[in-house]
Design the sequence.
């Protein structure tokens, strides 16, 4: 899949719109596709498993489905607009449109790591570690992840650097 499709990039000479959570939609759909058959199978084995364990597994699966639906329908609609004309970065969500989050001249791009993987984030120059915004998917140490990283840096990160430098 092309990086422009993966992040639903909308690009003009003065702006860039990215949807950093879109790549997670595929994983969320796979989680739901795995949980549904597991729930059906678990239903037929309810007599072999203690009721507490059976109920706990269903709670965990329900949480997985709800969180995956949240990622698909709410989180994946989050976009960031880097606008050189307005000299700002805007956040658009399903419930909030065009919220100015950072002036473009204060944007700092840095890596944020957690649990063995890392991703790019942006923040204001003086408070980047207090309040920051994710602008990429997670990258790991594998070959495919490295290929995605190189493409991300060449296509998206380069354009963001150009807009910040204007």
Sequence:
């Amino acid at each position: 899949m092309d990086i422009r499709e993966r992040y639903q990039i909308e690009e003009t000479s003065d702006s860039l719109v990215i949807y950093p959570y879109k790549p997670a939609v595929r994983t969320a759909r796979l989680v739901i596709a795995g949980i549904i058959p597991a729930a059906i199978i678990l239903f037929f084995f309810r007599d072999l498993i203690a009721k507490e364990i059976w109920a706990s597994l269903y709670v965990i699966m329900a949480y997985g489905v709800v969180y995956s639906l949240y990622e698909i329908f709410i989180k994946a609609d989050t976009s960031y607009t880097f606008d050189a004309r307005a000299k700002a970065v805007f956040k658009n969500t399903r419930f909030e449109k065009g919220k100015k989050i950072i002036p473009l001249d204060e944007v700092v791009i840095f890596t944020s790591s957690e649990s063995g993987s890392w991703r790019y984030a942006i923040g204001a120059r003086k408070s980047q570690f207090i309040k920051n915004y994710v602008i990429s998917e997670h990258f790991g140490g594998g070959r495919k992840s490295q290929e995605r990283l190189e493409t991300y840096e060449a296509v998206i990160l380069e354009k963001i650097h150009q807009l910040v430098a204007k």
The chain has a mean pLDDT of 91.
